[in-house]
Write a structure and sequence with these properties.
By secondary structure, the chain is an all-alpha fold. The chain has one domain (9-66). It is 71% helix and 0% strand. It has three helices and no strands. Helix 2 packs antiparallel against helix 3 (40-66). The mean pLDDT is 93.
């Protein structure tokens, strides 16, 4: 069985990811040129990236559980 992220996501997770992707670009576009890694915009983008990774890990774990892969 091959893992496909799009088919493993629930409708709610899919909508959350769809909305998070442009928000990352939104925050990164507003980072200052100097000291960008310390800016609150950078932190917000990193938080969104972590949220996306968490959703994808949950979907993978659910897929593995449903298909008996441990």
């Amino acid at each position: 069985m091959v893992f496909d992220l799009e088919s493993a996501l629930s409708k709610k997770e899919h909508n959350q990811l769809r909305k998070m992707e442009p928000m990352i670009q939104y925050h990164l576009a507003r980072t200052p040129l100097w000291g960008s890694r310390e800016s609150p915009q950078w932190a917000a983008a990193e938080k969104l990236k972590e949220g996306m990774a968490t959703i994808q890990k949950k979907a993978r774990a659910r897929f593995d559980e449903q298909h008996g892969i441990f």
